[in-house]
Design a protein that fits this description.
The chain has 313 residues and is mainly alpha-helical. The chain is built from twelve helices and two strands; from the N terminus they run E-E-H-H-H-H-H-H-H-H-H-H-H-H.
């Protein structure tokens, strides 16, 4: 006969429920029979799961390794790839192409490093070799002579100097483009030849703006010369001489610009002293008169035109 369970409910009397024919399951925590049965059932199941995961891992490893087995031997790199960088740098082109792959890659890395280093200082070098130095100094002196500390701003002065420098250097830039850049782009000139050819117009421009006294001074310090013609002056001597001459010319032009504004300051200071207004700053009173004078004489046009004409000789 099957076992029966009796449940007593409050107020309703005993209720009988038929239990299953299976062996009753004990829910007590300390029952050793239930614990052993659970362990016996879980052990085979965990071993089966472990073998399934191991099989999946092996299949995944084989699947990932199949493309690697199918790859061929990579082709050796061509050292001649560095020729483009060699041409841009203008040196070591043929040597890098004729060396082994390791030396070629080392040469390529060295050339890239040199190019990146030159790119950081190249703008400053090019600006010092053009009319930019004289123009920016004159405009800065003009702003100070007017008594304006931040007007026009530095960005405006730099923009004016750059655009006026492009205007003044336009003939030289066109000559460089015609004689050096276009033949190099067409493959008619190598990198070193392009640099040498492009330096000729710049050399001629700087020689025209450099004083003989400055060239002689730096040539004596470098223990070189005398030179048969201006074309024989090396860039190592011409560059510092050109910058020195540009600074001197810029300060001379700045002095001439400063004179009329100094006169206005003196007149205003004298009038204020005669009126007994010694405590009043003459700069506050003289600034409107300076601006009025500068606008009436069309000062910006005169300044820009004078700077451009100063490079005509």
């Amino acid at each position: 006969m099957s076992p029966r369970a009796t449940v007593t409910r409050q107020g309703s009397g005993p209720a009988l429920f038929a239990a299953s024919k299976a062996k009753p399951f004990s829910r007590e925590r300390g029952n050793p029979e239930a614990t052993n049965g659970a362990l016996r059932n879980a052990a085979p199941r965990s071993r089966a799961n472990a073998w399934v995961w191991i099989g999946l891992a092996v299949l995944l490893a084989l699947f990932l390794a199949m493309p690697a087995f199918a790859q061929g031997v990579p082709a050796p790199t061509n050292p001649a790839v560095g020729d483009a960088v060699d041409r841009a740098l203008g040196q070591l082109g043929g040597q890098a192409a004729g060396n082994t792959g390791q030396s070629g890659s080392l040469s390529l890395s060295l050339q890239v490093l040199i190019i990146m280093g030159l790119l950081t200082i190249l703008p400053g070098i090019l600006l010092m070799m053009t009319s930019f130095t004289r123009i920016i100094i004159v405009l800065a002196i003009l702003r100070q002579a007017l008594g304006l500390q931040q007007t026009p701003p530095n960005q405006v002065l730099l923009g004016l100097s750059l655009f006026l420098s492009f205007f003044i250097m336009a003939p030289t830039i066109n000559q460089i483009n015609t004689t050096a850049i276009q033949p190099y782009a067409a493959g008619k000139l190598a990198g070193t030849q392009m640099i040498t050819t492009a330096g000729v117009p710049l050399h001629a421009f700087m020689v025209k703006q450099t004083r003989v006294k400055d060239v002689t001074m730096f040539a004596q310090m470098a223990k070189s010369g005398p030179y048969a013609s201006s074309l024989d002056i090396p860039f190592s001597v011409l560059l510092p001489a050109f910058v020195t001459s540009e600074l001197k010319t810029a300060f001379q032009i700045g002095f001439l610009i400063f004179l009329p504004f100094i006169v206005i300051d003196l007149v205003v200071a004298t009038v204020l002293m005669s009126l007994g207004m010694a405590m009043l700053s003459p700069t506050i009173i003289s600034m409107p008169f300076k601006l009025l004078l500068f606008v009436l004489v069309d000062g910006w046009a005169l300044t820009m035109g004078s700077l451009a004409n100063s490079f005509a000789t």
